[in-house]
Amino acid sequence: MLNPALKYDLLDAHNQAVKNVLTFVESNYVVWREHTNKDNRTENIKTKNTLFTYLQHRVSREQDPQLHTHCLLFRKTIINGKIMTIEDRFIHSNQYLFSLMYDNELSKALQEKKDSPSEIHEQRSKKYIF
């Protein structure tokens, strides 16, 4: 059975990893396209603000233990007091990067916990066993 303290450390590490990746996405990949008719140019502007929501699940469809979070991005940002739609191709084209960042953040957080390195082992499938 999993040590209760380790259970909460794992949950905290997961939540912090999700938060860190979403903060990175918001700061670097939320882009609004501004088109000017005067010179017929389109410029990508990083707005650094959007709205995310996330739903945390602790079991798989088969009801096996599987901690994971579904993150939803509302494709809106605020520009000069107006709600505008973001250009999401930058986010979609970097999903794999964000997945790797999550894995890295989670691993780093677990290594910082005292008991974790001896109790948690990463498999090649990116799943963690106890």
Characterization of the model:
- The chain is an alpha+beta fold and 130 residues long.
- It has four helices and eight strands.
- It has helices at 4-28, 89-92, 95-112, 116-119, and strands at residues 31-36, 41-46, 51-59, 65-74, 76-79, 82-85, 121-122, 128-129.
- It has a two-stranded antiparallel sheet with strand order 1-2. Strands 3-4 form a two-stranded antiparallel sheet. A two-stranded antiparallel ribbon has the order 5-6.
- A hairpin with a 5-residue loop joins strand 7 (121-122) and strand 8 (128-129).
- Helix 1 (4-28) packs antiparallel against helix 3.
- The radius of gyration is 19 Å and the shape is elongated.
List the helices and strands and how they pair.
Layout: H1 4-28, E1 31-36, E2 41-46, E3 51-59, E4 65-74, E5 76-79, E6 82-85, H2 89-92, H3 95-112, H4 116-119, E7 121-122, E8 128-129
Antiparallel strand pairs: 1-2, 3-4, 5-6, 7-8
Helix pairs in contact: 1-3
